[in-house]
Each structure stands twice: as C-alpha cells, then as structure tokens.
Amino acid sequence: MTTIDDVARAAGVSVSTVSYALSGKRPISAPTRARVERAVRELGYRPHAGARALASQRTNVLALMAPLRVDVNVGVIMQFVTGVVTRARDFEHDVLLLTQDDLAGVDRVAAGSMVDALIMMDVEAEDPRLPLLRRQKQPAVLIGLPRDPQGLSCVDLDFEASARLAVDHLADLGHRQIALVGSPHLVLERRTTYAQRMVHGFTTETARRGIAGLFVPCESSHAGAVDAVDRVFDQLPDVTALVVHNEVALPVVLATLRERGKEIPRDISVVAVCPEDVAVGQQQPLTAVDIPAMTIGSVAVDMAAARLDGDQPAETRLLSPVLTVRASTGPAPA
Amino acid sequence: MTTIDDVARAAGVSVSTVSYALSGKRPISAPTRARVERAVRELGYRPHAGARALASQRTNVLALMAPLRVDVNVGVIMQFVTGVVTRARDFEHDVLLLTQDDLAGVDRVAAGSMVDALIMMDVEAEDPRLPLLRRQKQPAVLIGLPRDPQGLSCVDLDFEASARLAVDHLADLGHRQIALVGSPHLVLERRTTYAQRMVHGFTTETARRGIAGLFVPCESSHAGAVDAVDRVFDQLPDVTALVVHNEVALPVVLATLRERGKEIPRDISVVAVCPEDVAVGQQQPLTAVDIPAMTIGSVAVDMAAARLDGDQPAETRLLSPVLTVRASTGPAPA
DNA sequence: TAATGTCATCGAAGCGCTTCGACGCAACAG
DNA sequence: CTGTTGCGTCGAAGCGCTTCGATGACATTA
C-alpha cells in the first residue's frame, strides 16, 4: 500500500505539505503542488479512509436505511436509493446501506463513527428509530413525516396536496363520485404517514367540494387489485373517476376496469399517483401526480450536506406535487 | 465520544486488556472480562470504526455494486441486495452501495481501504471492471459469469440448465414448437451473460430434442411485450408453448395471450423464469424456474467471507435450477 | 539597518484502536 | 529449593492521516 509518506518522499516534501496540497486547506506554491500531484499520480496513491476518518472526524460516508421488504413498492424505493447514491457522490460521499429492520444498525454506524449523516426511508408516525437518531451526534434526514420531527430534518412529497390536486382535476372535469384506491392495509397499519396523508387530503378535499369520496385500501397483488375495484363499484356504483395510489396494483386495476366493460376515459377517468415512468409505461399513458422519488432522494442528501457543514438547524421540506394530464382523464359521462 | 481508554479506566485495567477482552484474541480471566463488559455497557462504548480499520486492516464493510438503472429488473435486483445485506450482517459486515456506472468507485473503495471485499452484480462477458478488480488486494465476487473469471469468484443461477429444464418439461408434455421470450435487446448487446446463457441453453436443447425453437428478444414495456407475442405468432404460427424470461413483460405477455384468444394452459403453455413470488403473484400461478435471487446474494457473501479468512482460491458456483410445476403448463393441444 | 509581516513549508502531536513482546505470578517437575 | 511452563495482564509501538504551532526565507516598511 502506498501511503502519504511515500508520496512525500517521492515529491521531496514533508507529509504535512502533501496533506495540505491535496486538501487545499493551506496555500501551497504551484510548483510544489505540481510535484505532489505528480507523485500521487505515479504512485497511484489513495488516502486510507480509516486513517483519514480517525484524524479528521469525517468518514465521507452516509448511511441510508431502506426498506428491503417485498411488500412495498420496489420501483419507487429503487429510485429513492438511486437519487441518494447519485447525489451523495456529488458531495464526495459514499453510501452505506442498512435495512429497515436493523434497528441496532443506527447505533452501530452512528456511534461507531462509520458515517457522517443518516437518511431514513419510509418513516412511520411513531417511528421507533427516532429516539435513537436524536441521540446521535450525526444529523439525520427522514424521508417521510413522523408525528414529531423535533430535531430531525424531513423531506417528502406533499401527499395531502397531491390528493387535492388529483381531486380538483377530476372535480373540474365534472366528476362527482370519486374513489381512491390506495395502499395496502399493512402499510396503513404501520402508520406509514404518506398513506395516511394521502387519504386525509383526499377525504377533506372531496368533502370540501361536496363530492362523494370513497377510500378503499388495496393489497399489492393481482387478487387484491381486482378485489379493490369490485369494492369500489359495490360501494359507489356510480363512480366516474379513480385515483390510484398503488403502483403494483395499477396495471391490474386498469385491466380489471376494461374487463368490466369500462373504457378509459370515456366511462371512467383515472388519475395515478406514481413515478412518471410508471404512468407513461402503462397500456395507455396516464394522467398522474408524479412521485419524484429520485428528486426526493437527492434533496435528502442536500439537506444532510447542509447540516454537515453549514450546521443549519433541522427543517422540513414538502415538495409540491405536479399533475400531468395524459390520456386517462376526461369529462365525466353525462 | 467514549473511547477504549475510558473503558479501561472505568474497569481498572489497561487498554490492551479491554481490547483482548472484547476480541477474545487472548485469554482474559472471567472476572476481568466481566468488569470490562460492565464498563462497556455502562458507558455505551462503541469502537471507532476508522481507528479499528487503521489498526487491524479490517473494515468490516463490503462493497456491493448494483445496477440502479431502471431498464433492468428492479425486483430481482432488490432481492439480490437484500440477500447480500442480510447475509453480510451474519458476518458482522455492513454494505457500501455503489452504482454500476461508478467505475472509479472500485478503486476508491478498494484502494482506499474502505472495504474488505467487493461484490459485483450484473457482470458482462467482457466487463470493464474486471481488470480493476484483479489489481485490488481485496477479494471480489461476481454475480454473473464473465468470459474469463480468472482470479475472481463467481456465482449465478445456471441459466443454461434452466433453459434446458424448461424445454425438457415442455417437450415431455408433447410440445414441439416452443418460443423463448427473453431479455431486451439492450441487455443482450451489453453482453450480460445470463441472457446469452439462457438463449444458448434454449437453442441447444431444442435442437438436441428436435424441437422447433424460436427466440425473440422483448423490450421491458407494455408495447414491447405485445410486440414480442406478435412476433412469436408471426414466425412460429403453430407455437404451443412459451418460455418467458423477462419479469416486466411477463404479466403483459399473459394478458396479450388471453386477448388473442389463447387460454393457458389449454391452448398454450407458459414456463416463466423468474423469482418465485412473481410466478405465484400472477393472475394464475405459473409453472416456473425459480431465480433464487436472495440465495445468490447470500452465497456471494459466503464466498467473499471464505476468501477473507480462509484465503481459499477463487471459485465459480453455478446454482442448479429448480422447476416448479403450477397451473400454466399442460399437454400440448392435439 | 532593524523591525515587521507574509508566504510556504516543516515537525510533531494526536486521532482510537490492535498487537507484539515482556513481565509477574502461581503451579509444577526435577 | 531451583528451574520451567503457562496464564493473565500491561506497556508501547504503530497503523496513516490531519492539523496546530513554529520556522525560515523573503519582501516591505520605518
């Protein structure tokens, strides 16, 4: 292994000069810096991460805790992760991946000084990780919105506003009976707040506009989706529009509607709440509220970075939803 | 931060005694060990990862390079990752996540001594990462099979055998015209070997058994899947069985078959090659060759671990496929 | 000419841990 | 009673880096 000593010797300078030349934390004359850089290149020198972390109190790694279960929406998670990893590189950071259930992991990586900051996905209302996070010296960023975010940064799509946006779009088209096909029971029971916030926004907005609004949970399986559609028609026979907030179920819901003889958007309009690629990848392109998963991931990193060197206080950011009209919504049938 | 010195002081022993008490690398008397452990508990001591890495040449972290693109099969990747992360914990290791395109990452984390070993997913025949990997001091495990694995451990499902298994199952049921609906063009062009191995196994086995075998690539989109089905009927009008090795397309292929008036398995049999949960989660449970993604991930970790402390030489392991008969295959129509 | 200031560089301490060699002590053999 | 062995513990070196204070060279000013 080539060390900073080797570089110093090769460049004919002291170790500290090499360090300063590379970090730029003190002025080094151009010729000296050139010699150092040359030596670095020729020897293929890489600073030892552990030694650096020990001396500088910085690891250049951040922890990402992601739900690797199968029941949640794999595609969205992947995009979050991609956003985080990609943006982290812009800040010269790598990403240590923890699983959601690894509660001890928070302590292990934070107290063990393995990371500079932590990002947690899929936060629940009373998430058991929050107390752990609060007592670490590293800043934490939550993707999601717990009941009490005290001391922790949060970022998420504004799901209440998303629901409103979807309802308004449909209401403006004349729809008066709208159903929300949402997350599985389990997700709601876990008190994952995005699901709750969606339902809440939907309920209040339909109420506000004097519209019949029905919420049905929907399991993420073929059967679950078919069942959800059936329940909608059962409980709201004259429904003319659906808001679907469940990616896995989405294609099945569409197929089932067609099977039941409903043409989209002639007989029934559909607004999806999902990432853009899912919305346009269906049999027909769907009007949708975009879940900008990658953006959220990268914003999370930005927020972590801000707290690392700016030591700003924690803040909460809710991203404004954007609805894109495509082929799946139209005026309510007469 | 509480350090090993604090623990030593609290326990009334020397620093080295604490270290040995915790690592077990030298005998420490029971009472002393108890005092150390008590101090550790009371102070909430966690060794500093960087310091430990510096002194011991072990980081207890392994790198996992995963394709976070969207075009590949997200679900399978997630399962690999889960397998790796979960198994890594059994060996007291954490996982650093790199993206596939981050070629420089190999050097950064390996030469920078951030990890003890590397695991690379989605390896191509002439993968550009291989030379980089070979010159690192850390062992590497590939998920996939490059043309020349020299010096690197490999693990994957035996896709040639999988194809054979699928073909044999169908041939034994009397099918004489079989099509393989496979990976997208791009994946093949990238020379991702699982796709090639699948095609090769399919081609040789159909030939060996004197069966008409047709391979059609299939893009991972609704339109792509529909198109693939059309091409199959175009080029092999009397086809009675399909092998589908493309998870994303799978549901669309099934739907399209039905739309074309083909009932499964009465008119046409289908063998999927996909993870079990995908096979059973379709509208009807599918006969399938399981892709044991999680197992492969955990085997990869096992292989890495073996090379870490046993310093066994590199080896290649191809997992034997298992075909499970479900509702989508039956005798060839007369 | 001496005092002052600037700039580039150096030396050394120290980050927190592991590990090697040494040491004291008790048990045992000769 | 001395010599040997083995167990449990300690001290110190060293892992590779960052950073602080000091220093020397040189230019600037009084």
From TrEMBL, chains A, B:
PANTHER family: LACI-RELATED TRANSCRIPTIONAL REPRESSOR (PTHR30146), LACTOSE OPERON REPRESSOR (PTHR30146:SF153). Residues 2-56 form the HTH lacI-type domain. This is LacI family transcriptional regulator. One of its GO terms (molecular function) is DNA-binding transcription factor activity. Keywords: DNA-binding, Transcription, Transcription regulation. It comes from the Bacteria. InterPro entries: HTH_LacI (IPR000843), LacI/GalR-like_sensor (IPR046335), Lambda_DNA-bd_dom_sf (IPR010982), Peripla_BP_I (IPR028082). The keyword DNA-binding applies. The keyword 4Fe-4S does not apply. It holds the Pfam family Peripla_BP_3. Gene3D superfamilies: 3.40.50.2300, lambda repressor-like DNA-binding domains. It comes from Cellulomonas chitinilytica. Signal peptide: none annotated.
